[in-house]
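ok new one. same drill as before - structure tokens go in, u give me an amino acid for every spot. 292 of them this time. try not to just spam alanines like last time pls lmao
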């Protein structure tokens, strides 16, 4: 569910000392192999297809991988990445650093054991960051940060513990509906719907099938697209109104890889979905870009 915390603790001091050298490579990949989608209407499955395919990827290594290793979102002109303890804003090349907050977890949340930032979301100049305590998972929070400076705004919201068993690995803002979504990480059977205004719980939406090991989610064309770390690194499509879950596509990454966060942004190469994964060597991170 997370990059090794010990590695993070060793490296975070280096991140606060100064800028890191950026090591990244971009490589186009062959398109093709359209993914198939199994749409679950009720208890039965009906076949459908979404032809997502990988059009390019970037690879980051060592400390550069760590800084980008949990989640990603965008304000339209830059990428904002999350690590277990920090936030990083780069140009859309993914490399040029514009802002860094290597120790972003607020002290009041850290005092409760908060030690892990998950997949983040952007709205109206703010970064919405889920923070959990990794030992007992008793204090799930969403904290708000200035998207430009990455500094904590002083606003955070405690989430219902009963709905976040095992922490809060991701958060997704749905600006069109005025809602924010979360779900528990392991075998989630409901989607938690929170108010964008003050994060109070509006309702829970039963899912048509349980989904497991969701590492990040983001809105695209009215649906929630969720990146999972299951055996095939499935990207699910979820209707937040009805709870209908379908398979958008399987990423089928190499053995030992770990799927992470997801962002949505139309880019020049035709990609709309942008998804992170930790390499099987545990010291590299891939940022893959997918188009329909």
């Amino acid at each position: 569910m997370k990059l090794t915390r010990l590695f993070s603790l060793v490296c975070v001091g280096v991140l606060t000392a100064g800028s890191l050298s950026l090591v990244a490579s971009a490589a186009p990949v062959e398109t093709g192999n359209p993914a198939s989608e199994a749409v679950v209407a009720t208890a039965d499955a009906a076949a459908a297809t979404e032809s997502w395919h990988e059009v390019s990827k970037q690879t980051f290594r060592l400390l550069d991988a760590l800084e980008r290793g949990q989640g990603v979102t965008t304000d339209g002109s830059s990428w904002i990445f999350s690590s277990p303890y920090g936030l990083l804003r780069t140009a859309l090349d993914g490399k040029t650093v514009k802002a860094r907050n290597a120790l972003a977890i607020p002290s009041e949340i850290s005092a409760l054991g908060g030690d892990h930032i998950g997949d983040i979301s952007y709205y109206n100049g703010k970064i919405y960051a889920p923070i959990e305590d990794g030992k007992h998972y008793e204090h799930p929070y969403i904290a708000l940060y200035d998207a430009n400076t990455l500094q904590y705004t002083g606003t955070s919201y405690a989430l219902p513990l009963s709905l976040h068993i095992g922490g809060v690995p991701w958060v997704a803002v749905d600006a069109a509906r005025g809602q924010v979504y979360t779900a528990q990480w392991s075998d989630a059977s409901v989607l938690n719907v929170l108010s964008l205004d003050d994060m109070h719980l509006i309702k829970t939406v039963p899912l048509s099938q349980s989904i497991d090991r969701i590492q990040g989610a983001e809105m695209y064309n009215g649906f929630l697209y969720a990146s999972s770390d299951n055996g095939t690194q499935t990207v699910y499509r979820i209707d937040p109104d009805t709870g209908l879950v379908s398979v958008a596509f399987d990423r089928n990454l190499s053995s030992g890889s770990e799927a992470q966060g997801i962002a949505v942004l139309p880019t020049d190469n035709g990609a709309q979905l942008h998804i992170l994964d930790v390499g099987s060597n545990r010291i590299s991170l891939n940022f893959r870009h997918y188009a329909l």
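The chain has three helices and 24 strands. and btw The mean pLDDT is 88.
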